[in-house]
């Protein structure tokens, strides 16, 4: 059972999501929040698997709430909702620990899939728009930062693995590309996440672009 908190200032949006999840096996809505402060309180109280977080809310916005939840409750995943496919705030949410984002006009089946992917600890990076968003904002000069010490301590193979993750490859695709077993690929990715203290693959991608390990290829 995937336990979900819905955070959106629009009552009708929350009602629609609740109706969808209440009719599907394997999902349970344990709370609804109208702003970021309430979302944090509900996350503390219920420890849901996923918080579905709108960015633009009155009072404490979704960006601040995302950072607070990810910092305080590492087992609670955040799935960001947005009405725009390229959004500065969404990038900052990924930077702050969100596990991915979904457009508000996505099909119901996409929401269910997204919740499942995020709840099991994976990042929602499959849509090309996600990688495009990360490339767009992480490559800007104001977001560039020196290599963290942990990144400099990665082995050559681990830096190669990180670059492939940033390119959007799955563990199986990495294994095929490097001609190694899927189990070895998963071990490498897990080790890189541990060394860089990353919550998930989304943060690995952001770090790879911000540090300059991977550069955006312009046409």
UniProtKB/TrEMBL annotation:
Keyword vocabulary terms for this entry: DNA-binding, Phosphoprotein, Transcription, Transcription regulation
Is this entry keyworded Transcription?
A: yes
4-aspartylphosphate carried by residues:
54
The chain positions of domain Response regulatory read 3-119
What CDD domains does its record include?
LuxR_C_like, REC_NarL-like
Residue stretches making up the HTH luxR-type domain: 147-212
Q: Mind telling me which InterPro entries this protein's record contains? A: CheY-like_superfamily (IPR011006), NreC/VraR/RcsB-like_REC (IPR058245), Sig_transdc_resp-reg_C-effctor (IPR016032), Sig_transdc_resp-reg_receiver (IPR001789), Tscrpt_reg_LuxR_C (IPR000792), WalR-like (IPR039420)
Q: Which organism is it from?
A: Saccharothrix espanaensis (strain ATCC 51144 / DSM 44229 / JCM 9112 / NBRC 15066 / NRRL 15764)
Q: What GO molecular functions are on record for this protein?
A: DNA binding
Give yes or no: UniProt keyword rRNA processing.
Answer: no
Q: Which GO terms describe its biological process?
A: phosphorelay signal transduction system; regulation of DNA-templated transcription
Coiled-coil zones: none
PROSITE patterns per UniProt: HTH_LUXR_2, RESPONSE_REGULATORY
Which Pfam families does the UniProt entry name for this protein?
Answer: GerE (PF00196), Response_reg (PF00072)
In Swiss-Prot or TrEMBL terms, this protein is called Two-component system, response regulator
**Sorted alphabetically, which SMART domains does this protein's record hold?**
HTH_LUXR, REC
């Amino acid at each position: 059972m995937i336990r979900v908190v819905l955070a959106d200032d629009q009552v009708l949006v929350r009602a629609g999501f609740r109706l969808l999840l209440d009719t599907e096996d394997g999902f349970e809505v344990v709370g609804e929040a109208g702003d970021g402060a309430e979302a944090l309180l509900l996350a503390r109280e219920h420890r849901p698997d996923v918080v579905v977080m709108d960015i633009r809310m009155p009072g404490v916005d979704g960006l601040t709430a995302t950072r607070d939840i990810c910092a305080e409750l590492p087992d609670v995943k955040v799935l960001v909702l947005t009405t725009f496919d390229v959004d500065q705030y969404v990038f900052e949410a990924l930077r702050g620990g969100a596990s991915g984002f979904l457009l508000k006009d996505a099909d119901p089946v996409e929401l269910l899939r997204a919740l499942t992917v995020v709840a099991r600890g994976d990042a929602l990076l499959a849509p090309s728009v996600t990688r495009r968003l990360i490339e767009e904002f992480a490559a800007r000069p104001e977001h560039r930062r020196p290599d963290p010490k942990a990144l400099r301590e990665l082995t050559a193979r681990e830096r190669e693995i990180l670059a492939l993750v940033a390119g959007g490859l799955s563990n199986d695709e990495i294994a095929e590309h490097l001609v190694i077993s899927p189990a070895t690929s998963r071990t490498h990715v897990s080790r890189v996440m541990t060394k860089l203290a990353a919550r998930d693959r989304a943060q690995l991608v952001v770090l790879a672009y911000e540090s300059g390990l991977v550069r955006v290829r312009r046409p």
